[in-house]
Amino acid sequence: MELTELTISQAHQGLLKKEFSALDLCKAYLGRIKNRDKEIFAYLTVSEKLALSQAQKVDEMIAKGGEIPLLAGIPVAIKDLLMVKGLKCTAGSKILENYIAPYDATVIKKLRAQGAVILGKTNMDEFAMGASGERSAFGPTKNPYDLTRVPGGSSSGSAAAVADNMACYALGTDTGGSIRQPSSFCGTVGIKPTYGAVSRYGLMAMCCSLDHVGAITKTVEDAKIVFDAIKGKDSMDSTSVESISNAKAQMLKINELKIGIPKEYFIEGIDPEVERLVREAVKKYEQMGAKVQEISLPHTEYAIATYYIIVPCEISANMARYDGIKYGYSTVKSKKHKSQDLLDVYLKSRAEGFGEEVRRRIIIGTYALSSGYYDAYYLKAQKVRTLIKRDFEKAFEKVDIILAPTTPTPAFKIGENVSDPLTMYLCDVFTAPLDLAGLPGISIPCGKINNLPVGLQVMGNYFEEDKVFQVAQIFEENK
User: Fold this and answer.
1) Would 118 be classed as within a structural domain?
2) Catalytic residue among 21, 93, 154, 156
3) Among 64, 70, 187, 295, which residue's Cβ finds the most Cβ atoms within 10 Å?
4) CA 330, CA 327: separation in Å to the nearest integer?
């Protein structure tokens, strides 16, 4: 087996047994990136010097004979929305093309403390606004399974890097499905934790009430390792909490497991082959002794409309900081813009720095928050969000876990939906409800259609990540 094909746990064991060094592992991944990334464009920045120095430190620790953490020496890719001190952090946008992060995000501090090796920053839809990986200001990422297709978004580069063995694991973010959806398209494992389980400090905000930091990995076991390393309360993020350990999850028996299948997730428009593969996965759980029952999440049909009111409203506020004055792209230095007043600087810097999708969402959000429309749109959307949350709460009174497709189709062709925002937004139809409710979910591969991966989504109750991991691992080990 090639070094770049190892999982986190396999690489950790290899380092402990001195079958290879952390430097060997790092160089193997850097070589893979040099060979493959020209085609896939998963990385915006490759931090070769940093990675090699971090790998060398881990080798020195191993040489001294001390214990090393599970992630020590393991190469990781970071979505370019998370701050890594000293590296560019562009958010996939021209407006931050040359911005250097002045500090580490909390999750990066935690990875550094573990001895992780940071390979670089990954490509993404601009400011995480996209579901395909085509909305990066620097060019689209391609799906490693088929270079004519999208990898999903917005954590496009993170998923593609892991799928193509250009990183052992990656960090991504999920606001409407941006970890789980690309994981489904690229055949990786993607975990979106409970809202607040992982600190958002150092994450460039798109939608503060919906943004989640999570991991994209090769296996469920790896996803749990990364989640355990980055979770926990952070004094720099008032929404973060200590994860509640679930003793019941550790004793879970498959014949006691109650699985819910939401009828609203098997709707007209879903690819029949996706439905077949997901139902076959459910049947495997049933054959192993789990009790399966149909449930209803009646407000699912309003999730996309609700999501695309709340998110643009928060975007409108969060994007206001990019004004061409404090940092980022500004027309002040541009030769083509002369004798500008302050308003000109604001308008022209934002018009030239932001891409089409970002501008669209700012306009929608500003309109929805404007006088006379706030109650009709934003306030009503928040009320429906509460109803969606209650649907899940009622469902978890009857079942332990909910299973559903991650996406309605496999990866589509690059350019196929780019001019149709509504079709693109519907990619999140099965993932956005979980973000609105703030619940944990994981996407795991459950088969392929014409060599294109399909994801099974395992959803759990608040802070029951342990149970989600266990149920996902049961399928992974028995598929």
Assistant:
1) yes
2) 154
3) 187
4) 8
